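The protein record filed here:
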Amino acid sequence: FIADLYIQRYKGFYEETKQGIKLHPDMRINHCSIHGHYIFNHKRYSHRASFGLAEKQVRSAGSWLAGAQAYLMNLQSDEPLRKSVHNRSRSYHVGVNGGYAHTWVLGRWWNIGTMFTAGVVLGQERFSGGGSSSTSFVVYPTVAPRLSCTYDRNNWALGFSFIGNMIFMAHDDK
C-alpha cells in the first residue's frame, strides 16, 4: 500500500497581461491532498526501493495500482479573482485512480522506477466575497507521474526522484 500526503502553501503571484506583468502579492493558495494506492503485485514489486530508498529491488518487476484521492484547496486575494466579483475560493474533491508502476533493475547497483496514475475527482467549489457567492459541482481529471533513478550500495544509496500531482481545473469567467 502507498500513502502520500501533500501540503502546499503559496503567497504572491503574478499575471502576464498585454500591458506587462501585474503583481498579486496578497494572493495566497493553501492546498492539501491525500492519495492512497493498493499495489496488486506487492510480493515482487517494491515501491520503497524506487521512491523511498528503504529497500533493494533485485529483479525488475511492476504492478497495477488502484487507489483513491482527496483534495482541499483555498484561494484568497484582496482583489476579485479573474473577471468575477469574488475574492475567495474553497474547493473539495474526492475521487478514484488507477495506474501502473515498474522498476527496472540495471545491474547490481542501479534501478529506474516509474509510476503513472490517472483518475477522476468529483467536487464542490464555492466562490465568495464582494457581497455574493456561488457554488458548483464539478468533475475533473487527475494525473500523477513519478520517475526515479537510484544507485543503491549495501549501506548507502543516492537517488533522484520526480513526483507530479496534477488536478486539471477549469473555471468560468462569469
